[in-house]
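Exercise 7b. C-alpha cells:
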C-alpha cells in the first residue's frame, strides 16, 4: 500500500537537528473536507538563531523561503536571528506584548490555567501580528516556517490558529500542541546551560500538555463564539485569505 501523509505517526513530524529541539513538519493533518496538509509546505520550530554547521545545511535542504520570527526584537538582539535572513522573505512579528519569565512562575499556581491566561493576553494584544503572520503563510513564497524561542507557546498558538482555518479537528490541534512534550527535557537542559547562576523555580517549564491548548480554545469560544470567529471577527482574516491558505497547504 502506498504511503500517504495521513499514515505518518505524529511523533515523526519532528525533524532532527543537533541544536534545535522542536522543529517539525505540520504535514499530515486532515481537514474536515478530507484533504490533507501536505508535507514540506509549513514548519514550526524553536529558535532558528541556533542554526549552525550541519544544522544550517539540513535547514537549507528543506527549501524554506519564508521565515516568520515571533520573538520580541530584544530576544533577537540577545540570541540572534536566522543566519543570512536576506536569503528569505523574513518577518519579525512579535505576537506577545506582555513579557513574563516562565522559569520564575510561582510553583503554587495552577500551571495550565496560568499559561492559558497568558495565551489569552497574546490573542488580545497581538491581533495585528497574528493577522500578518497568517497572511504571510498564505501569500508569501513557500515553503514557510514560523518560530519563537522554544517553539512552544507563541508558535503553538499560531499553529493552532492555522490548523483551525484549515478545519483540522480540535483533537488533532491539541495533539500537535502536545508534541512539544517530546522536546521538554532538552529545552530544560538548554535553559540550565544558559542560566547557570539561576534556579529553575517552575517545575512545569518546557511542558506543553494538550490541556493548555484545550483551555485556550475554550476561552476563545467563550469570548468570541469559536476560535474561527476570533480569527474572522477580531483578527480580521478574510474568506479570500482562508481560500489562499487552504489552496497553498492542502492537497
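Sequence design result:
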Amino acid at each position: 500500500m502506498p504511503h500517504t501523509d495521513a499514515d505518518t505517526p505524529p511523533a515523526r513530524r519532528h525533524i532532527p537537528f543537533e541544536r534545535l529541539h522542536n522543529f517539525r513538519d505540520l504535514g499530515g493533518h486532515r481537514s474536515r473536507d478530507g484533504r490533507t496538509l501536505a508535507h514540506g509546505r509549513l514548519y514550526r520550530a524553536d529558535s532558528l538563531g541556533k542554526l549552525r554547521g550541519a544544522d544550517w545545511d539540513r535547514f537549507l535542504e528543506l527549501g524554506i523561503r519564508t521565515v516568520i520570527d515571533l520573538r520580541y526584537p530584544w530576544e533577537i538582539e540577545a540570541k540572534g536571528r536566522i543566519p543570512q535572513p536576506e536569503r528569505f522573505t523574513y518577518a519579525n512579528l512579535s505576537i506577545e506584548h506582555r513579557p513574563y519569565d516562565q522559569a520564575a512562575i510561582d510553583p503554587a499556581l495552577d500551571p495550565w490555567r496560568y499559561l492559558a491566561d497568558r495565551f489569552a493576553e497574546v490573542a488580545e494584544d497581538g491581533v495585528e501580528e497574528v493577522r500578518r503572520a497568517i497572511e504571510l503563510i498564505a501569500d508569501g513564497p513557500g515553503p514557510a516556517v514560523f518560530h519563537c524561542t522554544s517553539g512552544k507557546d507563541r508558535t503553538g498558538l499560531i499553529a493552532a490558529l492555522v490548523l483551525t482555518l484549515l478545519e483540522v479537528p480540535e483533537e488533532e490541534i491539541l495533539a500537535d500542541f502536545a508534541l512539544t512534550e517530546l522536546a521538554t527535557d532538552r529545552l530544560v537542559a538548554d535553559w540550565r546551560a544558559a542560566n547557570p547562576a539561576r534556579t529553575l523555580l517552575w517545575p512545569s517549564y518546557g511542558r506543553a500538555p494538550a490541556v493548555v491548548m484545550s483551555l485556550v480554545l475554550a476561552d476563545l469560544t467563550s469570548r468570541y463564539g469559536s476560535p474561527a470567529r476570533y480569527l474572522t471577527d477580531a483578527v480580521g482574516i478574510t474568506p479570500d485569505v482562508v481560500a489562499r491558505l487552504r489552496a497553498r497547504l492542502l492537497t
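Instructor comment: The CA atoms of residues 127 and 168 lie 21 Å apart. The longest helix spans residues 111-125.
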